């Protein structure tokens, strides 16, 4: 593998953000783009930060050759950050645009983490209960039954024995199948745009992908409109950054705009945004006065989306907790039957 490729692998997204923010600080202090790149290179050399040094060197060489800054950044910054950097340079609002983009990135990250934190604990408890069931059915209960003069013919004991046998023999296959199905489900959520997609969404499927796409579109479009881009240009800028599913909705929004729609809620009413966000956009008046309304909606969109996702996630968590309680009751029932048989012997 080439050395440059190895450097890129260690060039994490967080370090990219830090490099861009530091570069903006040099620009804000009055340095020219070339002076800022040289300062970044010397600083990275002093602290032996190789990817940062290479990035600054590439940028300085590109500026000396009279080439656009994006030629040096391309391939070293992730696409979303690169496009925002390019847009900020073109609109002469680089620092402000990057700061606001970073704020929205952090809000989306906190939204994702808050949702997953509520899922991890019950799933971990379910895994522990399944492991306890497998150990009880394969090791603990057989030892107790060996002291019983007669076989314990009770449905709970037979159920634990059968379930533990399935977990031991097929548990790994079930786990791999579950992971594979999860990956396929995620890929379909991001790329499938068939006509049955909307019907399945109404039944609750792909709700997470749709909700996160709605947050991303609302926040990014508000960010672009706030920095003097037209709605048409903003939609065009977002299309290369979006996955196939979200890109399809962006193209439909562009078609609504081309038909002469003036209400922002009508333009963005493609089925991606939930009704709560469309209601707020509808109250934002016409397109000419809707930038502030869209911005206010974007700032609150993650809370609205979280409430919508949680209404569906509670059902999933309820089923998980129901499975946990059911397995614990089954283990207690089976253990009680075995102990009763031993005491009566």
Descriptors:
transmembrane, 345 residues, membrane, Type II secretory pathway component PulF, mainly alpha, GspF/PilC, elongated, transmembrane helix
Strands, total number:
0
What does the overall shape look like?
elongated
Number of helices: 15
Report strand %. Answer: under 5%
Protein name: Type II secretory pathway component PulF
Keywords: Membrane, Transmembrane, Transmembrane helix
Organism: Idiomarina aquatica
Transmembrane segments: 120-141, 161-185, 315-335
List the helices and strands and how they pair.
Blueprint lengths: L2 H7 L3 H16 L4 H14 L3 H15 L4 H5 L5 H13 L2 H52 L9 H37 L5 H6 L4 H20 L4 H8 L5 H15 L5 H4 L7 H8 L8 H54 L1
Helix pairs in contact: 2-3, 2-7, 3-4, 6-7, 7-8, 7-10, 7-15, 8-15, 10-11, 10-15, 11-12, 14-15
What does this structure look like?
This protein has helices at residues 3-9, 13-28, 33-46, 50-64, 69-73, 79-91, 94-145, 155-191, 197-202, 207-226, 231-238, 244-258, 264-267, 275-282, 291-344. The protein has 345 residues and is mainly α. The chain folds into 2 domains: 3-77, no CATH class; 79-344, no CATH class. Helix 6 runs antiparallel to helix 7 and helix 7 runs antiparallel to helix 8. It is elongated. The mean pLDDT is 84.
């Amino acid at each position: 593998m080439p050395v440059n490729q190895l450097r890129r692998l260690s060039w994490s997204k967080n370090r990219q953000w830090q490099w861009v923010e530091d570069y903006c600080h040099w620009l804000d202090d009055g340095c020219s783009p070339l002076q800022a790149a040289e300062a970044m290179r010397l600083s990275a050399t002093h602290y032996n930060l190789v990817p940062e040094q290479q990035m600054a060197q590439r940028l300085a060489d590109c500026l000396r050759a009279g080439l656009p800054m994006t030629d040096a950044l391309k391939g070293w910054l992730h696409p979303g950050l690169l496009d925002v950097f390019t847009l900020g340079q073109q609109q002469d609002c680089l620092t402000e645009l990057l700061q606001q983009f970073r704020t929205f990135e952090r809000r989306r990250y906190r939204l994702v983490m808050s949702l997953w934190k509520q899922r991890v604990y019950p799933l971990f408890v379910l895994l522990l209960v399944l492991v306890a069931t497998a150990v009880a059915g394969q090791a603990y209960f057989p030892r107790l039954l060996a002291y019983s003069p007669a076989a314990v013919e009770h449905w709970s004991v037979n159920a634990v024995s059968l379930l533990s046998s399935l977990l031991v023999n097929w548990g790994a296959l079930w786990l791999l199948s579950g992971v594979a199905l999860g990956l396929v489900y995620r890929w379909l959520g991001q790329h499938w745009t068939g006509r049955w997609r909307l019907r399945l969404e109404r039944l609750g499927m792909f709700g997470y992908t749709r909700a996160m796409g709605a947050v991303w579109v609302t926040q990014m479009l508000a960010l672009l409109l706030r920095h003097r881009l037209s709605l048409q240009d903003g939609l065009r800028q977002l299309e290369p950054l979006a996955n196939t599913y979200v890109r399809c909705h962006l193209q439909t929004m562009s078609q609504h705009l081309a038909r002469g729609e003036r209400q922002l809620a009508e333009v963005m009413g493609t089925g991606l945004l939930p009704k709560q966000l469309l209601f707020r956009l509808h109250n934002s008046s016409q397109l000419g006065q809707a930038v502030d309304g869209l911005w206010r909606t974007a700032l609150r969109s993650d809370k609205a989306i979280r409430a919508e996702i949680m209404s569906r996630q509670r059902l999933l968590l309820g089923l998980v907790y129901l499975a946990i309680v059911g397995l614990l009751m089954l283990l207690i029932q089976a253990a009680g039957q075995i102990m009763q048989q031993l005491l009566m012997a």
